[in-house]
Amino acid sequence: MNTNREIRINTNSGIRINTIFNNNTFDTVFNNNSTVGEIVAIMPKAAEIFKQYKIDFCCGGNRKLLEVIKEHNLDEEKILEKLNEIFEENSKVKTNGKNFLEMSQNELINYIESTHHVYLRRVLPELNELTTKIMRVHAFKHEELFRVHKLFSTLRADLEQHLMKEEEILFPLIREYEKEYEKNPNPQVFEKVKQVMKETEDEHEAAGDILKELRRITNDYNVPEDGCNTYAITFKTLEELETDLFQHIHLENNILFKNWRD
Fold first, then answer.
1. What is the spatial distance between Cα 206 and Cα 59, in angstroms, rounded to a whole number?
2. What's the rounded Cα separation, in Å, for the pair 245 and 116?
């Protein structure tokens, strides 16, 4: 397939590319030198494609798409084509009516707390019961469930502390800075925010590693033939947790925290 790409104009959301596939022209707002985090920030549905190809868009969101494609020996043309299809379907950056790139820091924090933090506080106790139950019933045939239970228990403890740190320390600092110091910067408060952000990003990476290991040892959450309904519900809920947490981390690492790096 003959593909030409040329930069046409700059936009508020990034570089707009005029892409030609077999003489059919359409616009994109990314190219293969964009980072995966930037692409998901512009087009949230791109996360579905990255998950399909096991491309880390949250903790690894600062890596260039081309670099990741080459490292994993993926089909660059096919991935760009799928991303362009998503752009054609939805040319604006919106998920459930939310435009994350246009939100103030306070608005984005409110969204994260009311959506992702609320979800985690509901689902973590549920999954604790589910992973314990299937371990007790099925682990004699499926020993990996001991590891699933241990990994989830670690993830749950880490996330509960993580939510507390964000709500009690990091988010109040960001809100204070946006309200009090945006026009008159305070270097001490600024450095404090960056320090806690770095700790938070390290915790995100640790959570991402656990999620990847859970997916690996469960064979992509594949329920065995002798798995009961609870087994299936547990794996489905773990996969939903993965999806929500990846989006949660992406919003923080690649949008909220990005303002403090630039």
1. 9
2. 8
Q: Is 235 exposed, middle or buried (0-12, 13-18, 19+ CB in 10 A)?
A: buried
How far apart are alpha carbons 36 and 15 in whole angstroms?
14
> Residue 172, Cβ neighbours under 10 Å: how many?
12
Coil, strand or helix at 240 = helix
Tokens standing for 48? 């579905």
The secondary structure of 175-217 as a DSSP string is: HHIIIIISSS--HHHHHHHHHHHHHHHHHHHHHHHHHHHHHHH
Which single residue is written with the structure tokens 């752009």? 87
Mapped onto helix, strand or coil, the DSSP state of residue 15 is strand
Amino acid letter, 16:
R
Q: What's the first-to-final CA gap in the chain, in angstroms?
A: 38
Domains, the chain, with CATH or none:
3-89 (1.10.3910.10), 103-261 (no CATH)
- Cα distances (angstroms) measured from residue 152 to each of 169, 201, 254: 25, 19, 25
Confidence of residue 30 (pLDDT cuts 50, 70, 90): low
Q: Which residue has the tokens 């590319």?
A: 17
d(CA 15, CA 28) in angstroms, rounded, equals 8
d(CA 60, CA 250): 9
Residues 6+ apart with CB under 8 A from 229: none
Q: Is the pLDDT of residue 71 over 90?
A: no
Lowest mean pLDDT among 51-55, 92-96, 97-101, 246-250: 92-96
Pairing state of beta strands 24-28 and 14-21? antiparallel
- DSSP alpha helices (H): ranges in 43-117? 46-52, 65-71, 76-89, 105-112
Helix (H) or strand (E) holding 148: helix 144-165
Q: Poorest-confidence range of 83-97, 98-112, 220-234? A: 83-97
